[in-house]
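User: Quick sanity check before I run a bigger batch. Here is a single chain. Can you write out its predicted 3D structure?
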Amino acid sequence: MKADDFVDFKKLKDSQDGVVTAFVVGLLMTFIVCAGLGVDGGRLVAARLTLADHAENGARLAAQELTSLRTGSPKIDQQAAYRSALRYLNDNNLTGDISTSTNSVSVTVSQSVEMSILKLFGAKDHLISVTRRVEPRDQ
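Assistant: Done. Predicted structure follows.
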């Protein structure tokens, strides 16, 4: 056997320096992104559900402002409905768009949700907007 037939393990070891470090850094970044998706995604879902509740409650409250009940064809008092929905939104420190007609009320509520972990990776605030429409019915 010649000396060239043997593998120089010292050279092989030196060529592998930093591979484990790069692997660990990549794995750590993956875990942080997954945690960010879980945390910030959960915050987005919770904010959307809260806004949906507020939009629905505001529209439901406004749709109770009925006139002409005794005639058999109740209609929504549009001005009173608008004021009721606006009062509800103001009481809950929200802003939104309110649309009324004689047979329905729509309330749209929007809110910006700040990313907590994903902003480290460049994710910006996310705007959530929810619209709920209510029509009064007699059952």
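DSSP finds three helices and five strands in the chain.

User: Great, the batch can go ahead then.
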